[in-house]
Amino acid sequence: MNPFRKVSRVPTPQKLLDQAFSRAMATKRPKGQMPSLKRYRIHEQGRVSTAVNVLRSRINKIVKEFPTIEQIDPFYKDLLELLVGVDKTRLALGKVQGTIGALERIEEQINLKLQLAEHPRALEAIRKEAFGRISSVMEQIKPDLKLLSKVRMQMKRIPDFDPRWPCVVIGGAPNAGKSSLVRIVSSGKPEIGAYPFTTRDLVFGHRDFGFIKTQFVDTPGLLDRPMEKRNKIEKQALIALRRVSDIILFLIDPSEYSSLPLEDQLDLLHEINQFFEGTEIKIVISKVDITPPEQLKKLEEQFSDALWISTATRKGIDELLKYLETKVEELIVQPKFKQEISKSMGYTLQKH
Fold first, then answer.
1. 216 and 292 in one domain?
2. Are strands 247-252 and 167-172 parallel, antiparallel or unpaired?
3. 95 contacts: CB under 8 Å, gap ≥ 6
4. DSSP assignment of 277-311, as one string?
5. In sequence order, what E strands does the chain have?
6. Cβ contacts of residue 345 below 8 Å, gap of 6+?
7. At what angle do helices 120-140 and 36-65 cross, to 10 degrees?
8. End of a domain among 111, 131, 156?
9. d(CA 178, CA 341)
10. Angstrom distance (rounded) from CA 178 to CA 220
11. Treating both helix axes as pointing N-terminal to C-terminal, what angle do 86-116 and 74-83 enclose, rounded to 10 degrees?
12. End-to-end Cα separation, the chain, in angstroms
């Protein structure tokens, strides 16, 4: 599951101060027999303490809702680094958390001043001083709260990924038919468009092969160019391929409507093979219904074990699903899945 899913909206410093000071000023004066000056002193102390307590509680809630970065799945950690920055997030959380100590020191110093004050007006002035100092401290973490708000907005958009179950990542050039395939074989509902780069984010879908829950990922299109020249969208796709992929379906679009020439797509395939050396990548030739037969024949000679599909006519989809079912059955008896799946199913999986 996405560990950032439970993070609430991050408030601004002004919002936090409004809540704290509103609660503080609503504090009632103490009752009972006591000198007037003492009554004023206790009242102003209560106002300062209430403001600090409200802010301490709200700050703790903000920090605790964010997941511990060291404990999150590498998939989410890599995306956090890509979208915002891991070190920046850690630093912002540390600064926000550190504000509590600064507020408590202000409270301690103000309480000492209040003990020494000998006039109601002096007590009020000291309390106003406290509110001013508290406001200054909160203003200092404005950039940090803003960054945490950005982290929340960026990371909550990422779909849930469960490392206990196999994951099929679908890659290839822009407009190769990845979104259409995910829509057909899983519950995922990516936007379908007849233009490159429709997919700007990762889209997850699911399908059950028997009791085996299988995840599908539609990735943004990948251009054939060196890694250092890739944009964030392309790097996001590679992170998905590297971190979550158990099976990679690489789509090749040989039709005349392809966004990249066939030669460039093959170069991209070569690069992906190098990037994922040791990982099995299944070639899927897409759009066979609109590809000239002579072009398909050339590819068949080059990729004799490829799968041939058309999402428009559903040609080859059943064969693709049979291939995937066989592969996920092989995967779940491997150590990576066996322990977790056995635990969740309540029995031990046996390899046949």
1. yes
2. parallel
3. 141, 144
4. TTS-EEEEE--GGGS-HHHHHHHHHH-TT-EE-BT
5. 167-172, 203-209, 212-218, 247-252, 281-285, 307-308
6. 211
7. 10
8. 156
9. 28
10. 9
11. 80
12. 30
Distance CA 42, CA 45 (A): 5
C-alpha 51/C-alpha 25 separation (Å) is: 9
CATH number of the domain residue 39 falls in: 1.20.120.1190
- pLDDT of 198 reads 60
pLDDT, block means (10 residues), the chain with 352 residues:
94 98 95 90 96 98 96 92 94 98 98 94 96 98 98 93 90 90 86 60 88 89 71 81 89 92 90 83 96 91 94 96 95 80 52 42
Contacts of 266 (CB under 8 A, 6+ apart): 252
Q: Which residues contact 278 (CB under 8 A, 6 or more apart)?
A: none
136 and 200 co-located in one domain: no
Strand order in the sheet with 281-285: 203-209, 212-218, 167-172, 247-252, 281-285, 307-308
* Number of other residues whose CB lies within 10 A of the CB of residue 70: 8
The pLDDT value recorded for residue 43 is 96
Residue with tokens 């008896």, as numbered in its chain: 333
- Domain around 319: 167-345
Rounded to whole angstroms, how far apart are CA atoms 235 and 225? 12
